[in-house]
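QA checklist item 7 of 12: single-chain prediction sanity check.
[x] sequence parsed
[x] length recorded as 329
[x] structure emitted
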Amino acid sequence: MIETTENRNFSINTQTKNKPLKLKTMENKNFSIKNFIESLEKRELTMEQTEYLENNRKNFVELGYNCTDSNLIDKRTILAASIAGDKELKSEGFQKPNNILNYCKNYENLVCSCKIPVVEELNPQWLGEASNITISDPSISGLYFTPSRLGTVLNVSKMFFNQSENMENELILMMNNELDNKLISTIFTDYQQGNNDPILSGIFNNSNEVNYTGLDDIIELPYNVQVNSGLGYYVISPKAKKEILKLDSTAFSNNTLFGESYIIEPLMKDGLIGYIDLSKLIVCSWSYVDITIDNQTKAHKGENLIYLTGYYDFKLVSNDCAQWIDLGD
């Protein structure tokens, strides 16, 4: 018997914390979300489940984090399992679905905070035959990335798992996509965090907004970024697309917008249009995901609530990598 959740540095949701959880051994050495949910419903965690969750939490704390979450799973393991159909940890990681994050610079499966080097300008010089190289700093700076908590909740039917053995893999992919979607909607916004707000500010908050006066301002956006950063993409919300077509029904032609590549992003804050050098947008994710199962609140509907918390950070290399207009006002 576990005496108290506090003594074991392990807790579950409030619906079960006041009832002791019995431990039993389990031959299957693979962590299964389905089995984890069943164990919570029975108020019985296997010894292996408890040790797995405790060890993950201890590892996270040892890395220097103030860990408020307890049920930490290693998403590398479950994602590799869901894609490969087995429980082996695949070193090559997993390929994101076809979304806008694929255009960014991604650092995945990080284990601690880190400083990523950014090369701004190496200042190469053409030299005369007898000329010396002028000494100058190579302008290699760095951006510091530290994990921030990003959460979501899913309603999952208890009958879902009973359909086939592949349903757990489907759920894992859906869970990961939910976190990706929430991350995308946060990145591509002008949201600014408050003093007591733990959510990261969107990239448009720190980049350059253009006061909109007409279609020429939209056409000018690529130039303002390209002269300072590099080639990029128009990133367009659905409402911005609608407003552009009202102004010029032929604006989208030959798979371009005014001759530039574009991406329609439904998860972007509606009304925004930006031009972004996405190769200069760095997105970091950490290897642990917190999972909390609430199997009682929606029990009368035959559903489990699955709360997820992932750890992410993102930054533009510089403010000059993006310019944007709000057509939603």
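[x] summary fact logged: The first helix runs from residue 33 to 41.
[ ] second reviewer sign-off
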